[in-house]
Specification:
This protein is α/β, with parallel strands linked by helices. It has two domains: 270 residues, TIM Barrel (Alpha-Beta Barrel), CATH 3.20.20.70; 67 residues, Alpha-Beta Complex (Type Iii Antifreeze Protein Isoform Hplc 12). The chain contains 13 helices and ten strands. The strands form two sheets. Strands 3-2-1-8-7-6-5-4 form an eight-stranded parallel beta sheet. It has a two-stranded antiparallel ribbon with strand order 9-10. Strand 5, helix 8 and strand 6 form a beta-alpha-beta unit. The radius of gyration is 30 Å and the shape is elongated. The two termini are 59 Å apart.
Length: 352
């Protein structure tokens, strides 16, 4: 059975992160496309299909300038861009949530205003807060008051701002908080990915679950995501599309279903390689343990009753006789019987 979000963060499986396919508004207002993206996210191995819930006139003034790559998205006004994709209403999000349930994937959507918080609260297993709202005191208070787990992106934030957001969320009722390393470049150049921040966050905020929200352009090896998992990310968020060649918005730095499959397959392989952290001998090692280790071996003919000197013995494979670890016990002991040269010592050959 698929793990829930709470199970994934309270009892994480090594190198198998909780994966959020950030559909956002890559459906471009089409319900059928949104449902197709949900199904593709499930097919690729994601745990959650995430959307964004906003209205243009509540998120940006008409004077808000662009902060993305204008070569990939030519719209120079945030208000105009958001207006293109804010067609969905309350009934649409409920329909998307129901479709997610039908295909067994978590429905999540980032709220950008108070109405969105109230709409989404009964539909989602946790709240995702965008990096841009890490200092949005009224929104943080409202979300924390709902008592659900919170996942907070930390892009473009200082440590002091992260500290303040954590303190506010916890003081207002949030009891389960996860932090995502993030860089607010769309797309993020590899030189700016700064994945080392994952370990910094983990060290500074040891009581929180740490993850990564990625905006780099994906490659076949999904290097940024795989590296982030190796650095300890338990949650992965990545923009998701059905067609990376589409112009505009979040298609150009998103992963598609094949990228997602590649990533999940690599995580599964890493998990297999990880195995267990408990040091013990494996059944598969027993033959090597017996035959590749050394035993004490006669380096010359030894007579019965003779005191065994260090010059009379050596150590050779296999390890089926007296182990070389008993070297000091054998030196100075007495041979019970003749021991020919190259004979592997057994305890029956030594006087008690």
């Amino acid at each position: 059975m698929r793990k829930t979000f709470v199970q994934c963060i309270t009892n994480p499986t090594p190198l198998l992160p909780y994966i959020i396919a950030e559909i956002g508004v890559n459906h471009e207002g089409s319900m059928s496309k949104a449902k197709e993206l949900i199904e593709l996210a499930k097919l690729g191995g994601a745990h959650a299909a995430k959307f964004q819930t906003y209205k243009a006139n509540r998120i940006a003034s008409k004077q808000s300038p662009a902060y993305w790559d204008l070569n990939s998205e030519a719209t120079t006004s945030q208000f105009e861009l958001f207006k293109k994709y804010d067609a969905f209403g309350p009934s649409d999000y409920k329909e998307l949530a129901a479709h997610c349930e039908s295909v067994d994937i978590d429905f999540v959507s980032t709220p950008f205003d108070a109405d969105a918080v109230e709409l989404l609260d009964p539909l989602i297993p946790f709240f995702k807060i965008a990096s841009a709202d890490i200092t949005n005191i009224p929104l943080l208070r409202q979300i924390a008051s709902k008592g659900k787990p919170v996942v907070l992106s930390t892009g473009a934030a200082t440590m002091e701002e992260i500290d303040a957001a954590i303190a506010l969320l916890e003081s207002c009722g949030c009891t389960s908080l996860s932090l995502l390393h993030c860089v607010l470049n769309y797309p993020t150049p590899e030189a700016n990915a700064n994945l080392g921040m994952i370990t910094t966050l983990a060290e500074r905020y040891s009581s929180q679950t740490i993850g990564y929200s990625d905006h780099t352009v994906p490659c076949e090896e999904m290097t940024a995501l795989v590296a982030s998992v190796l650095l300890g990310s338990c949650i992965i968020e990545k923009h998701f599309t059905h067609d990376k060649s589409l112009p505009g918005n979040d298609h150009y730095h998103a992963m598609d279903v094949e990228d997602l499959r590649n990533f999940t397959a690599r995580c599964e392989k890493l998990h297999t390689l990880y195995g267990t952290a408990d040091k013990s001998t494996l059944a598969s090692e027993e033959s090597a343990r017996q035959n590749a280790r050394r035993s004490i071996v006669a380096d010359t003919d030894i007579e019965a009753g003779e005191t065994i000197l260090e010059t009379m013995i050596t150590y050779k494979r296999p390890g089926t006789g007296i182990p070389v670890a008993a070297w000091d016990d054998i030196v100075g002991s007495t041979a019970k019987c003749p021991i020919p040269q190259d004979e592997v010592f057994q305890w029956s050959m030594i006087k008690d």
